[in-house]
From TrEMBL:
Its cofactor is Mn(2+); Mg(2+). It holds the Pfam family RNase_HII. Manganese or magnesium. Binds 1 divalent metal ion per monomer in the absence of substrate. May bind a second metal ion after substrate binding. A divalent metal cation binds at residues 16-17, 108. Belongs to the RNase HII family. Endonuclease that specifically degrades the RNA of RNA-DNA hybrids. It is found in: Cytoplasm. Residues 10-199 form the RNase H type-2 domain. The keyword Manganese applies. InterPro entries: RNase_HII, RNase_HII/HIII, RNase_HII/HIII_dom, RNaseH-like_sf, RNaseH_sf. PANTHER family: RIBONUCLEASE H2 SUBUNIT A (PTHR10954), RIBONUCLEASE HII (PTHR10954:SF18). Its EC number is 3.1.26.4. This is Ribonuclease HII.
Amino acid sequence: MLLNNYSSKVLECGTDEAGRGCLAGPVTAAAVILPQNFSNHILNDSKQLSETKRDKLKPIIETDALTFGVAHVFQEDIDTINILNASILAMHKSIDKLKQVPEFIIVDGNKFKPYNNVSYKTIIKGDSKYLSIAAASVLAKTYRDIYMNKIHEEFPMYNWKKNKGYPTKEHREAIKKYGITKYHRKSFRLLPNQLKLDI
């Protein structure tokens, strides 16, 4: 059973990201403030949910949330500031988009940087403990998937529609065969033996 709030604040925002371990595309974060009486028996960490369930939850979260924000940080920035900083930046940008300023922030994971002067708490596996983080994980994942499906049309040989940019065997084989695209993260180890790849 996921909990509603960590703090006693009414405007508690949950934030999470998707796409951190991918070889291509953005890291995407979402921030969500849910009403205190919010409940949903399907909602859980997005990794525990099927694509069908995530797609079903997306409009429910968007309708029921007091406010939500979603932000992408793209591969060029990931290569410049590294994936951890890019993930935190994406979370900050998603919080920027909230219509109400959160009074408290709960973050999935163990790394975060202060956002303005708002108190926060990092929570390991927070997306399977708190509804607002689970909701953020669903929005981050669904919005990122929509983006990856779109760029798949441009480079179908990498099958991003299916692997969403993650390092599957098929994705690595395509990199070996076709090289890299403008969407690939050049700072990542794109092939097990990087020497084979001429960037």
